[in-house]
């Protein structure tokens, strides 16, 4: 069974694969170190939102290390480079000045920080999701790996995440509570951009499409289930339906950080098929609870802690956690092992390799 078959069988829950599949993302600093160790050159696919770059980059390296998946997405237009301000900060295509933080790139000025009306939204130019050259890397990796590996097409920052980067989280949450009139036009504008990316990736031949909005925090949801239902439920139904209309066999995958168990049932109702990253150590995400409540209708992708376990745990602790997650979430299929986010540079190389080895050791189905 090759990687493509392994992932497809696991995530569609159509029989058991030979083993639980594996996927992971590497930060720049970690990828650079592994590239030197393995003698494989790095290749960075710069995303239209910088922090997604780690998702799309270094597919050759990740495959060599054991990933069953290749991740592709929308890059910058051919020949385009980010302009920089006087302080050297990049200004992305959405007019967000960004600087490097301790781990992630940070937006330092919100281009829609004073938005009030639908007219303000209409007047704000979005980049062209189909700009020439934006999918050069995606096309290359799809051609290279489509027969052997499961190809994930990334369309993260689907609505809520892009909105909070444009508007600012505090203003956005207050305006959502007050029902500001610009909200729905902005949701639709963000959703239309992301959907155009997803449909293009489907046309190029990806196997799954990975949407992304973070509605959760460490201790609960950032917005109430009622508010999610009001603003996002039906929009997600429409987005998923459009993806399925383009290719009925596409696997619908959703990234959502934080504790979001209260909305999973309704998310499944509108078409969600694979939930990522199954952030561990947050309320409602106990593996047995998730598997027993949703495992007949939903597959899981993630669940390995990258906040404490991978950077600070021992190889033995990592192996024990991987084994425990596989025993529960992988029961009967429906699970792909992965860290709950991009592995950052504070994780020792030996711990990352211990994680990969543990999946290969304990993920076998008898």
Detailed description of the structure:
The chain is an alpha/beta fold. It is built from 15 helices and ten strands. The strands form two sheets. A seven-stranded parallel β-sheet has the order 1-5-6-7-8-9-10. A three-stranded antiparallel β-sheet has the order 2-3-4, with no helix packed on it. A hairpin with a 4-residue loop joins strand 3 (97-100) and strand 4 (105-107). Helix 9 (183-204) packs parallel to helix 10 (225-246) and helix 10 (225-246) runs parallel beside helix 11. It is globular and about 60 Å long. It starts with a helix and ends with a helix.
The termini sit apart by 14 Å
The biggest beta sheet reads:
7 strands, parallel
Order of helices and strands: HHHHEEEEHHEHHHEHEHEHEHHEH
- Fill in the CATH topology: TIM Barrel
Radius of gyration, in angstroms, nearest whole number: 20 Å
Short description:
With 366 residues, this protein is α/β, with parallel strands linked by helices. Helices cover 44% and strands 12% of the residues.
Search tags:
366 residues; alpha/beta; TIM Barrel; 7-stranded parallel β-sheet; 3-stranded antiparallel β-sheet; 15 helices; 10 strands; 44% helix; globular
List the helices and strands and how they pair.
Layout: H1 3-12, H2 28-38, H3 53-56, H4 59-65, E1 69-73, E2 90-91, E3 97-100, E4 105-107, H5 118-123, H6 136-145, E5 150-156, H7 160-167, H8 169-178, H9 183-204, E6 208-212, H10 225-246, E7 251-255, H11 261-269, E8 274-276, H12 287-294, E9 299-304, H13 309-312, H14 315-329, E10 335-339, H15 349-362
Helix pairs in contact: 7-8, 9-10, 10-11, 14-15
